[in-house]
Write a structure and sequence with these properties.
Blueprint (H helix, E strand, L loop, with lengths): L2 H26 L10 H14 L19 H12 L8 H30 L4 H13 L3 H4 L4 H18 L6 H19 L6 H13 L3 H25 L3 H5 L9 H7 L4 H20 L8 H21 L10 H17 L5 H35 L1 H20 L7 E4 L13 H4 L4 E2 L3 H5 L10 H9 L3 E7 L11 H8 E7 L2 E6 L3
Helix pairs in contact: 1-4, 1-5, 1-16, 2-3, 3-4, 4-5, 4-7, 5-15, 7-8, 8-10, 9-14, 13-14, 13-15, 14-15
Length: about 500
């Protein structure tokens, strides 16, 4: 790199960072209700938490709700909304903005942590550390910016890696090392109770301690985990009777190989960006035997890179999974590859002249690819006439029903609608009608490979038969997913079509 380019490189990184920050702000204020992550479900749970203080309802009873993630993110968004004086009934767009805004903050902190690790733990140059930080912030899928807990979980995971790296420093006194280990385990616990996938970190750190035969750390880890994880479990199981039913029973939706090959590892953005990182990481892992050789930091990064890759691949086999599962691997693989390029004795100086420019040019193209890909996607979400019309029509449907339902009515509205934009979808209908909506997370069942074990199907059918469900919303054409075999027959015998809105059919219960 020439002297002039080195001098102006931080300025160039800052400009590109601002462009991606502007792009992510476009996403924050998007009127779309599902940025690839079924945001409506999370918003619904936040509304319920704000309304009743209860986050995990009993899935076998009305409203048959499944809050599938662990609670910290929901509580954070709910607390923020209440602190700002927002209404759970009328400030729905603001609730979306709050969740998405937090995600930008978490992504920024993750990027900052990568800079710190690269600069002060791996001793990379400032420019390479700046570049690492930019890569972390710019390589994102829409799930990173959606109202979901992914970005929070990833940030806490990277933070725990940093403190565990500091813990590996032999110069730390016993008190400081014990403190760092405790903070590391606390951060992994916070990650787990933000999203279940955070569990991979404590497994990775324990596995690494076992690998280097650090029995003392392994014993201390076991002891601290019992206290911290046990404390969180005690707290949330006492706060919520249905905690385990939701966060464990609610996500058991089986393996979807077709989904995995088509929508995860076979997706174009994955093939041209993440596949190369997998190949390069595996090359250094095998060529340098990085798991078993080198200093502890390199070995830890090697174990963490391989561990997050395996975990992402296994969890991505789950039906309904997305490319988002690989984002933590991407961050850690970038750290590992940068460290390997910097310290790898097997690459001589003459080869480095060619290899490093090619690798950094590839990363520059990755940044450009993600920028174009996300800009095109958010432009479609915000400006596609079909989607704009569908959102407007969905609001009309919800408003009509809200005006039709008596205040504080105990009766429900069942939106038998997909989340797929190719058919008239839910589009915040359940958010607008959150006090009366039945089956607010129907997509969990729609994208599952088998019937849910925790849902009360008989209770649901009885409620529809007995008139406790006052309205049913169907799409035209009807969604292919069949929740209840008898639903269509019940609608014909006990419900009447009372209103139509451009692809939405509203049926009302009538006594025989």
């Amino acid at each position: 790199m020439s002297y002039t380019l080195k001098r102006f490189f931080p300025f160039l990184v800052f400009i590109v960072f601002l462009l991606f920050f502007a792009l992510r702000l476009l996403i924050v204020f998007s009127p779309a209700s599902d940025l690839g992550g079924i945001e409506q479900n999370v918003i619904y749970s936040i509304q319920v938490l704000m309304d009743s203080g209860n986050l995990y309802l009993t899935p076998a009873k009305a409203p048959f709700s499944i809050t599938q993630y662990t609670p910290i993110y929901y509580h954070l968004c709910s607390f923020t909304a209440k602190a700002l004086g927002l209404s759970k009934d009328y400030d729905i767009q603001q609730l979306y903005i709050i969740g998405r805004s937090w995600d930008i903050i978490f992504s920024f902190i993750s990027a900052l942590l990568l800079f710190v690790i690269g600069r002060y733990s791996l001793l990379l140059s400032k420019n390479k550390s700046y570049f690492l930080s930019l890569l972390s912030f710019s390589i994102f899928f829409l799930q990173n910016n959606a109202v979901r807990s992914d970005a929070l979980c990833d940030m806490l995971s990277i933070a725990s890696l940093y403190t565990f790296i500091l813990y590996q420093d032999p110069s730390k006194k016993t008190f400081h090392s014990n403190f760092l280990l405790t903070v590391t385990i606390l951060l992994t616990a916070l990650a787990v109770f933000s999203k279940q996938s955070g569990i991979q970190l404590i497994i990775i750190y324990s596995g690494f301690s076992l690998l280097i035969k650090d029995w003392k750390t392994l014993a201390k880890t076991f002891f601290i985990v019992i206290i911290i994880y046990g404390g969180f479990l005690w707290l949330f199981t006492h706060l919520y009777n249905s905690f385990f039913e939701n966060v464990i029973g609610g996500v058991s939706n089986g393996i979807g190989l077709k989904n995995f090959f088509k929508y995860v590892i076979g997706k174009l953005i994955f093939v041209i960006t993440i596949w190369p990182l997998i190949i390069i990481s595996c090359y250094f892992l095998i060529k340098n035997n990085s798991i078993f050789k080198g200093n502890n930091i390199i070995r830890l990064l090697a174990v963490a890179t391989l561990g997050t890759l395996i975990f992402a691949t296994v969890t991505a086999l789950k039906m309904g999974s997305t490319t988002q599962y690989y984002i933590l691997f991407v961050n850690l693989s970038l750290l590992f590859i940068m460290a390997a390029l910097e310290q790898n004795s097997l690459i001589n100086a003459s080869n480095s002249i060619y290899i490093k420019p090619v690798f950094f040019s590839f990363l520059g193209l990755v940044i450009l690819t993600y920028g174009i890909y996300n800009l095109k996607t958010v432009n479609k979400l915000n400006n596609d006439p079909y989607l704009i019309n569908q959102r407007a029509t969905a609001v009309k449907v919800a408003t009509y029903l809200k005006d039709s339902i008596r205040s504080n009515s105990p009766k429900y509205v069942f939106a038998n609608l997909t989340t797929d934009s190719f058919l008239p979808g839910r589009q915040r209908i359940n958010n607008i009608l959150f006090k009366n909506c039945l089956m607010p997370q129907i997509d969990i069942l729609e994208y599952s490979t088998r019937p849910s074990k925790i849902l009360g199907y008989n209770n649901l059918e009885n409620m529809i038969n007995d008139g406790k469900v006052e309205y049913i919303i169907e799409s035209q054409p009807r969604i292919p997913f069949i929740l209840l075999k008898n639903l269509e027959a019940i609608e014909k015998s006990k419900f009447r079509l009372v209103k139509q809105f451009d692809g939405y059919l509203i049926y009302k219960f009538y006594k025989n």
